[in-house]
Amino acid sequence: MKQTIFIIGLGLIGGSLALGLKRKDGLTIVGYDSNENSLVTAKKLGVIDEIASNMEDAAQQADIIVFATPVSITIDLMKLLPTWKLKENVIITDTGSTKNEIMNAAEVLKHFGITFIGGHPMAGSHKSGIGAARAYLFENAYYMLTPFVDEAEENLKRLKDILLVTKAKLVEISAQEHDHMTATVSHFPHLIAASLVHQLSEENKSFPFTKQLAAGGFRDITRIASSNPIMWRDITMQNRQEISNQLQLWTEEMLRLKHLIEKADQKDIEEYFAQAKQIRDDLPIAQGALYSVYDLYVDVPDYAGVISEVIGYLAKEDISITNLRIVETREDIFGILVISFQSMEDRAKAVKCIATHTSFDTYIA
Ligand SMILES: NC(=O)C1=CN([C@@H]2O[C@H](COP(=O)(O)OP(=O)(O)OC[C@H]3O[C@@H](n4cnc5c(N)ncnc54)[C@H](O)[C@@H]3O)[C@@H](O)[C@H]2O)C=CC1
Ligand SMILES: O=C(O)C(=O)Cc1ccc(O)cc1
């Protein structure tokens, strides 16, 4: 069946969804963005089939409308829907990181007979904009749907059939559960990352060399502090109660930790780290990892040309990489080269390839 999908907001998520959906025949992807540059780039890169010069006109032609805008904008735009002449069977959805306030806004639409099914792909990155969009972004990632409990099965099936093209794993939950769990694994960690960066900045005033020392661990734990501030302002505003609850729990945990340190009990301190390591090591990697990159750590000796040598072996076997970085380079110890892949399969091939051609150890974090 031919269908027109209208995506509003062509940044990282809207662009990735468009690219993911383009793999299915019979779908026409129409896009709109308030930023003219993003719109033109999306068309030029082939992310969308057609540019919508006017939101209302494009919405009237659409079978599915997706809001992939910052969550505050999504709520503003949802208010316009009852004033537009939409197709009778149109399904509206969104990709926002919060769901409670969006589903509250959707209650209003329900009174106008407009179908809205909330959505949130649990994949993304600290990058934003159309240039960061990738067709495979949602592959294997959880994609949460928050339909009203009385939503017609037929509508849900229609939306799921489309979204499954992205190869995401669709999960239905309530908006409340969604906002509670994402506060724990996504929203609150962004506050921690931002606060650690602020703490470094303060320290740096008295000890100006500190920043230079901010190497692997600090960079890993604060990567998400480089995310789009407008997006995170909106998420924090919309989920502030759950985030505040997490902050309370964290504060209590920090006090417990402070007590542990002041007691100076080696055994307890070791146990604290050991338990955390165990839990962290047991986290499912491909399923539910928010940032779905597949990193491989390679212990490479520090000699000229070693990196191009490793990359050369991978290239010869046609294993494509998405990123490359060095987390430690010191003369006396091995350097750790981190290679990122698009999929687990590519990473597994790389492990074999490196083992065949070198004696370097490889690790998966
Ligand atoms: N960045 C991430 O990793 C993830 C983000 N999300 C959610 O997806 C949504 C989009 O996020 P991103 O794509 O990362 O943001 P982005 O900043 O890359 O893209 C948002 C796009 O919306 C456009 N926009 C802003 N106001 C608009 C308006 N009034 N009309 C039309 N377009 C407008 C912007 O120009 C921009 O191109 C947000 O609600 C976010 O919470 C969900 C999962 C992951
Ligand atoms: O870069 C990361 O690890 C993220 O945290 C990406 C992300 C951002 C927002 C979401 O709602 C879901 C995923």
TrEMBL record:
Prephenate/arogenate dehydrogenase domain residues = 3-291
Fetch the InterPro entries from UniProt.
6-PGluconate_DH-like_C_sf, ACT-like_dom_sf, ACT_dom, NAD(P)-bd_dom_sf, PDH_C, PDH_N, Preph/Arog_dehydrog, Prephen_DH
The EC number(s) attached to this protein equal 1.3.1.12
Q: Which domain of life is it from?
A: Bacteria
Which pathway is this protein engaged in?
Amino-acid biosynthesis; L-tyrosine biosynthesis; (4-hydroxyphenyl)pyruvate from prephenate (NAD(+) route): step 1/1
Task: Specify the enzyme's EC class, one word.
Answer: oxidoreductase
Q: Where would I find the ACT domain in this sequence?
A: 295-365
Keyword terms of this UniProt record: Amino-acid biosynthesis, Aromatic amino acid biosynthesis, NAD, Oxidoreductase, Tyrosine biosynthesis
Instruction: State the reactions this protein catalyses.
Output: prephenate + NAD(+) = 3-(4-hydroxyphenyl)pyruvate + CO2 + NADH
Signal peptide region: none
Annotated GO molecular function terms are:
prephenate dehydrogenase (NAD+) activity
| Family in the record | Belongs to the prephenate/arogenate dehydrogenase family.
Q: What is this protein called?
A: Prephenate dehydrogenase
- Species whose genome carries this gene: Psychrobacillus faecigallinarum
